[in-house]
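User: Could you go from structure to sequence for me? I need the amino acid at each position, not a summary. Structure tokens:
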């Protein structure tokens, strides 16, 4: 831990020095141009500039979406754009291209070839568009020498695209064309404001210079450095309008990053450590160590957390024991019932089952600690090569285990049942109000914590033994949010999660209060993000 800390501090020290230098330049510019109150900028102008910045963010996200097509959603595209712009503003010296490559590979199923194509075309596209911007400025001011220089620069970018076969000329052209559209539409809104104060030539020049410097600046948030070239105008109005637009580009990114940075498991400190790219590159599912073989270990452990389940547990256990008998020739199965401090006759029921069936054993919690604590103990003490935990109500029939086995034997790390994925052979019964509230809840959890998971709460999940200890020993949630925390940790560690549609039916006796527990879960999500987030927390 101590040996790695200087890497963070050294990079942060560089950023701090650059940022302080930028603030110093900005302060000198304010001294030179005068205060904002003397600029005469109206509130409507500020709103328009903020709208232009938001439009630019949306169009850049749309550009990404159009490039990757159906492989990512528009919302994913927006979230990826926010993360990358956040990185650019916060930590411009980190290799953005490498970071984005590893980030996209981790969060999507897009091929490495297409990611590489996107990155190369975008980098060359920025170079080409900046060259076009310089050419336009040179033409506006009738500067023949600079016009030639920027024209040659733009031509060189095109030539490189044609010579590098792996870039793909068509994809590159599409990327460049849409990039020009982004800058053009954003620029039209910005210059429509500036044109009230200065000539169109000065308006477009100021916008293009500012935007190009923001793209290329090594200073965090491009503070000071982006506004420095505006000295050529000697115009307080241009300076302050550009400052407003500059801030308008930063504010939406910072606001949205409050959601998306932790959604993708980052902490702010991760962006100041060059080792973040190394940690993003870890793909544990591709580096599966051999599972310790124990001749006496069963193939599957079924863990059942039970709290006051004397009524529902016997029926589910009957189904499980029948399943074990029917499949004894191909699967060896143990059942671990974890009593969570029940106050009814659950213990007596479980003891009787364990006494009559050698494949059943009982674990007892000293007191009621919550479903998460019961599942954690059962999974950590399970002996099977794979461990499944299932709710005691039997809402998901035990025969659905047959659907999980092919995935888990195919080296997938985690297989979870889903009530939100439809299939022709699946029947899912749910009350209307609970169904509506459930759909809203899952979207919230997906948005805030575990992207890509459609159903976090189905009580039917299987884990490989080689990752149970890594994940469950880090889990701290004892209540209903433990499922979200486990999946959050699994995604943080880079483990593959497969969702499989399962049959499910509502069973009377649920201990969940839809409204009360939903509010508790919302609070728990923010607690999990704060407590568990950060790729470098344990490094």
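Assistant: Here is the amino acid at each position, in order:
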């Amino acid at each position: 831990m101590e040996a790695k800390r200087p890497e963070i501090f050294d990079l942060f020290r560089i950023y701090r020095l650059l940022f302080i230098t930028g603030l110093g330049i900005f302060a000198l510019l304010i001294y030179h141009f005068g205060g904002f109150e003397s600029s005469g900028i109206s509130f409507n102008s500020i709103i328009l500039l903020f709208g232009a910045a938001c439009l630019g963010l949306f169009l850049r996200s749309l550009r990404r979406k159009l490039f990757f097509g159906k492989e990512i959603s528009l919302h994913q595209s927006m979230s990826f754009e926010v993360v990358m712009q956040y990185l650019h503003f916060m930590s411009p010296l980190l290799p953005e291209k490498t970071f984005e490559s590893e980030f996209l590979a981790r969060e999507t199923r897009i091929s490495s070839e297409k990611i590489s194509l996107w990155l190369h075309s975008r980098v060359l596209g920025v170079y080409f568009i900046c060259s076009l911007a310089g050419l336009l400025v040179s033409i506006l001011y009738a500067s023949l020498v600079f016009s030639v220089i920027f024209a040659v620069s733009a031509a060189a970018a095109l030539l490189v695209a044609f010579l590098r076969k792996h870039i793909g000329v068509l994809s590159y052209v599409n990327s460049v064309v849409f990039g020009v559209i982004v800058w053009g539409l954003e620029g039209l809104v910005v210059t429509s404001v500036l044109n009230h104060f200065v000539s169109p030539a000065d308006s477009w020049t100021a916008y293009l210079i500012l935007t190009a410097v923001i793209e290329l600046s090594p200073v965090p948030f491009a503070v000071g450095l982006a506004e420095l070239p505006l000295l050529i105008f000697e115009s307080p109005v241009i300076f302050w309008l550009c400052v407003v637009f500059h801030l308008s580009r930063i504010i939406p990114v910072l606001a949205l990053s409050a959601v998306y940075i932790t959604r993708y498991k980052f902490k702010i400190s991760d962006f100041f450590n060059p080792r973040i790219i190394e940690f993003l590159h870890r793909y544990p599912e591709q580096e599966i160590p051999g599972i310790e073989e124990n001749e006496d270990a069963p193939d599957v452990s079924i863990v059942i957390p039970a709290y006051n389940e004397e009524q529902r547990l016997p029926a589910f256990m009957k189904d499980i024991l029948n399943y074990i008998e029917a499949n004894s020739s191909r699967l060896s199965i143990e059942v671990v019932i974890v009593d969570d401090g029940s106050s009814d006759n659950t213990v007596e029921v479980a003891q009787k089952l364990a006494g009559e069936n050698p494949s059943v054993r009982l674990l007892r919690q000293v007191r009621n600690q919550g479903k998460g604590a019961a599942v954690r103990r059962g999974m950590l003490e399970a002996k099977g090569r794979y461990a499944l935990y299932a709710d005691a109500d039997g809402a998901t029939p035990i025969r659905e285990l047959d659907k999980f086995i092919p995935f888990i034997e195919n080296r997938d790390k985690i297989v979870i049942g889903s009530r939100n994925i439809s299939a022709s052979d699946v029947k899912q019964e749910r009350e209307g109000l609970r169904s509506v509230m459930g759909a809203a809840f899952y979207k919230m959890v997906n948005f805030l914590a575990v992207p890509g998971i459609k159903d976090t709460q189905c009580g039917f999940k299987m884990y490989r033994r080689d990752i149970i200890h890594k994940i469950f020993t880090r889990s701290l949630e004892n209540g209903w949010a433990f499922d979200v925390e486990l999946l959050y940790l699994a995604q943080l560690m880079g483990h593959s999660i497969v969702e499989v549609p399962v049959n499910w039916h509502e069973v009377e006796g649920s201990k969940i209060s839809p409204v009360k527990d939903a509010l508790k879960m919302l609070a728990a999500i923010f607690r999990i993000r704060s407590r568990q987030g950060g790729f470098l927390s344990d490094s």
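One structural detail worth keeping in mind: The first strand starts at residue 300 and ends at 306.
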